[in-house]
């Protein structure tokens, strides 16, 4: 099946710094990538949908200036959490679809802890 | 009421038991996903269904579009099957957006 990777798998940072999370599709061209956030014991929450080469579409309540998404190539999307604060601590998951992939495949997730 | 409901929320089973997790939804969908999330968080796609039944190893997934219901079955359960199982439905046509259930926490005891 299709493989989606995320890097880093875990990151700890100080409040006020920015953190970049990468999502890569390894064996298919991902025309669409999705970014999700998951709080402890809660469902995944869609943050934004990004299509290669165009601006991301953010869900209601998600600050686009806080969570910068770039989908510059068919295999890479990045999520940058700007000026991170402790309340941004969460599990961030990407998924990708496109090419021969009939639906979405999920990355392994990135656990962010902001001190 | 959530658009995607799973039951049970928590399930404890003995090794070897046959397990069923149910998912009901209230929206029109183009596909339904079953996902597995282990402690530590990584999500694995188990199945994507739009009709009928799929089988992979000890896992079987079925869907009844008319009744808006899907089931995930695990035969001969094993402690390594312990995880959260999440049902998600796909809607919105070309955008492939997913609505997630709250998950079923399965613990299989040896």
Describe this structure in words.
- The complex is a heterodimer of chains A (115) and B (110).
- Chain A is an all-beta fold and 115 residues long.
- Chain A has strands at residues 4-7, 10-13, 19-25, 32-38, 44-51, 57-58, 67-73, 76-81, 90-98, 101-106, 110-114.
- In chain A, a hairpin with a 5-residue loop joins strand 4 and strand 5 (44-51).
- The radius of gyration of chain A is 13 Å and the shape is globular.
- The mean pLDDT of chain A is 91.
- Chain B has 110 residues and is mainly β.
- Chain B contains no helices and eleven strands.
- Chain B has strands at 4-7, 10-14, 19-25, 31-37, 43-49, 52-56, 59-64, 69-74, 83-91, 97-100, 104-109.
- In chain B, strands 2, 4, 5, 9, 10 and 11 form a six-stranded mixed sheet that branches.
- Chain B is globular, with a radius of gyration of 13 Å.
- Classes of the chains: A mainly beta (115), B mainly beta (110).
Features:
heterodimer, A: mainly beta, seven-stranded mixed β-sheet, 11 strands, globular, B: 110 residues, six-stranded mixed β-sheet, 60% strand
Summarize the structure.
The complex is a heterodimer of chains A (115) and B (110). Chain A is an all-beta fold and 115 residues long.
Secondary structure: elements and pairs:
The complex is a heterodimer of chains A (115) and B (110).
Chain A: E1 4-7, E2 10-13, E3 19-25, E4 32-38, E5 44-51, E6 57-58, E7 67-73, E8 76-81, E9 90-98, E10 101-106, E11 110-114
Chain B: E1 4-7, E2 10-14, E3 19-25, E4 31-37, E5 43-49, E6 52-56, E7 59-64, E8 69-74, E9 83-91, E10 97-100, E11 104-109
Parallel strand pairs in B: 2-11
Antiparallel strand pairs in B: 1-3, 3-8, 4-5, 4-9, 6-7, 7-8, 9-10, 9-11
Overall radius of gyration of chain A: 13 Å
Task: Give the ordered list of helices and strands of chain A.
Answer: EEEEEEEEEEE
Report low-confidence residues of chain A grouped into runs of 5 or more.
Answer: none
> How many strands, what sense, and barrel or not for the largest sheet of chain A?
7 strands, mixed
- Number of beta-strand segments of chain B: 11
Q: What is the N-to-C succession of helices and strands of chain B?
A: EEEEEEEEEEE
Helix run count of chain A: 0
Structural class based on helices, strands and sheet pairing of chain A: mainly beta
Shape of chain B: globular
Q: Quick check: average pLDDT of chain A?
A: 91
Estimated structural class of chain B: mainly beta
Roughly how many Å apart are the termini of chain A?
Answer: 37 Å
Largest interface chains and counts: A-B, 21 and 20 residues
The Rg value of chain B, from CA coordinates, equals 13 Å
The number of helices of chain B is 0
Span of the ends, CA to CA of chain B: 36 Å
What amount of the residues of chain A lies in strands? over 45%
How many β strands of chain A by DSSP?
A: 11
Kindly report the oligomeric state of this protein. Answer: heterodimer
- Shape, principal axes of CA atoms of chain A: globular
